[in-house]
Amino acid sequence: MKDKRQQILETALKLFVENGFHATPTSMIAKEAGVATGTLFHHFKTKEELINTLYLETKEILIQALTKQVNEQDTLKSKFRQVFYNAINWAISHPDHQFFYSQYSYSPFISTLTRELGLQRFHVIQELLKEGQENDILKAIPIGLMIDTAQGTLDGITNYLMEHPEKIDDREFTEQAFSMFWDVLKG
Amino acid sequence: MKDKRQQILETALKLFVENGFHATPTSMIAKEAGVATGTLFHHFKTKEELINTLYLETKEILIQALTKQVNEQDTLKSKFRQVFYNAINWAISHPDHQFFYSQYSYSPFISTLTRELGLQRFHVIQELLKEGQENDILKAIPIGLMIDTAQGTLDGITNYLMEHPEKIDDREFTEQAFSMFWDVLKG
Amino acid sequence: MKDKRQQILETALKLFVENGFHATPTSMIAKEAGVATGTLFHHFKTKEELINTLYLETKEILIQALTKQVNEQDTLKSKFRQVFYNAINWAISHPDHQFFYSQYSYSPFISTLTRELGLQRFHVIQELLKEGQENDILKAIPIGLMIDTAQGTLDGITNYLMEHPEKIDDREFTEQAFSMFWDVLKG
Amino acid sequence: MKDKRQQILETALKLFVENGFHATPTSMIAKEAGVATGTLFHHFKTKEELINTLYLETKEILIQALTKQVNEQDTLKSKFRQVFYNAINWAISHPDHQFFYSQYSYSPFISTLTRELGLQRFHVIQELLKEGQENDILKAIPIGLMIDTAQGTLDGITNYLMEHPEKIDDREFTEQAFSMFWDVLKG
DNA sequence: GATGAATGAGCCTTCATTCAT
DNA sequence: TATGAATGAAGGCTCATTCAT
């Protein structure tokens, strides 16, 4: 039998995505996870701690996923392409995590923290953006605008793919999508 | 003295933005608005109806704002530019409405509705996008992807401006921002 | 029908005396009082506030009772006698309040406040004690010791009477009891 | 390293005095004592058993302390004086035990038992009281009243000393205090 | 003996909503 | 229209206790 703590985390992720944080009682999580309510609070002092733990774990694996094989590319553009494919592939194959991440990011009760954490998420991209600006490949605009816009564009594309997951295997389509992403950035 | 119904709506908007829907009890809204709890439910049958009313009103004025003076422009690009400025100016001058709108859109308990509504919001843009594709000015890609990406990019830019509101008066900056928006779309 | 708030207070007093604060759930109070749980919390923000309200009210009527007719007496001794009878009569006729008062006073979660409040309770006696010392009628010892001891002696006598309430009508007995109280104090 | 059982008892005493029985979870006792929760319940079947054990031990050493050297005195008064000093010295040097004892005595969930136990505590005094009455040295009043009043007076004095511990070394003061105690009793 | 994860009944409190005035 | 006391289902969390290791 799986570790109860892990079982709770997985169940919580699923239910949060389905119903949202507030509409998911801890009792429901416990029941669905097959544990007692006390067990949930044995592992996570509060509901909020459970949510945060989930977020932190999600962020960690997301960052891992985004970074993969990026540095093995030669040109800056291929590096961006790699990040781009990493991002959309991850979203498609981990839809729950992806939804959870959005939900958490827009949740008002964590506003301040969120921004900072949101940036961490795109740390790889930020580095590439800076590099590209220094080499005059990308637009010469405030880095902050660049980051927010890149993130927005990528989110837009991801949103579409989440609703049309079959497109992920259509290389022509994904290349078109990537060209949009690239066009926002390149100078 | 202002109309009580209106007072409730304004107070609710402010509090929802500050705390989120779920963390804002109707009792708090009533108290802050200076009315009895019964009065709130006299005007709005349920809390959800209050939220929806707020959303509908917001959407209406947002659409009005986005559309303004668009058809007075000659080229497609200037039309997009006009929409772009309309969007960012509105966001900056109505931050509460803007936040409320995002929050509502990402709220899981209205998921199905959201898509549809989100589209309505960008109805102007959609029309322009179609027009641009038909005239081979914009990228020849699925219209859905185009819409989602345009919306994402615009949201990204808006996010940045919300945190740096002083930039709204820096024409050079806003033109750079617009160029990003335009580059995503143009073929 | 009686005022609900009052009904809650009376029921709570009864139950607290029977079971103690901790062993009396608010749900039990509400049910026994014939109101909804929400009603209890509508009138008292927390369980603790309910307890404190009960204490304050009890203290008030106790003080009133102790003071009665004291100043109509001529000698200091008769004043003390009056207070003494006031105290034991009140205890016998309001056993619940009396028990509640003891329980509250010894409750560890209100330690600091208690001392101070306990003194208020015996404000009348304190004044008499000071007067007696100034006139060399009472023992010339630190007033604090005098107060605490007087209170202790009176509590002891009261305790006995609570278990033998019939004695309250035995004038010979009560006079013997009073002589004990008086002997502790007189110089 | 100290015996775990003993460690639990000592920690429990300290915490009960600080927070009261109900506000002291067994988990807190275990943690503070540096043992596992299971260990606590290995030594004491229930929380109540732990409390009772603590009470019994306290009572035992209290009785020992009160009795010390009493029978070595010649007159009844010196015997009372001896008990008196035994009582206040013990209270001052074992404040936690003293507080615990009071708390236990006033705890509503052991009401019935309490009376009986309270009597045991003053068994020495009771014997002396009886002896004194038989020899016409003490007041000729119901022995029950005598016991309760003596206890009350002594508690009052003790309370004062607990708050002014430095007075314990002021022989003039303690003799004044004793005279109060003696005056309540003597005929 | 010792451990600590697991249990689940039960507690305090919240909050959307109703209704008599 | 407006009021606010009253409602009660539901939620987060606690805590004494058990039990497999």
From TrEMBL, chains A, B, C, D:
SUPFAM superfamilies, per database record: Homeodomain-like, Tetracyclin repressor-like, C-terminal domain
UniProt keywords, alphabetically: DNA-binding
DNA-binding region positions on the chain: 25-44
Protein name, entry field: TetR family transcriptional regulator
Domain of life from the UniProt record: Bacteria
InterPro entries in alphabetical order: Homeodomain-like_sf, HTH-type_TetR-like_transc_reg, HTH_TetR, Tet_transcr_reg_TetR-rel_C_sf
Domain HTH tetR-type: residue ranges: 2-62
UniProt entry tagged with the keyword Chaperone: no
Organism: Sunxiuqinia elliptica
GO molecular function, one term: DNA binding
PANTHER family to which the protein is assigned, alphabetical: HTH-TYPE TRANSCRIPTIONAL REGULATOR RUTR, REGULATORY PROTEIN
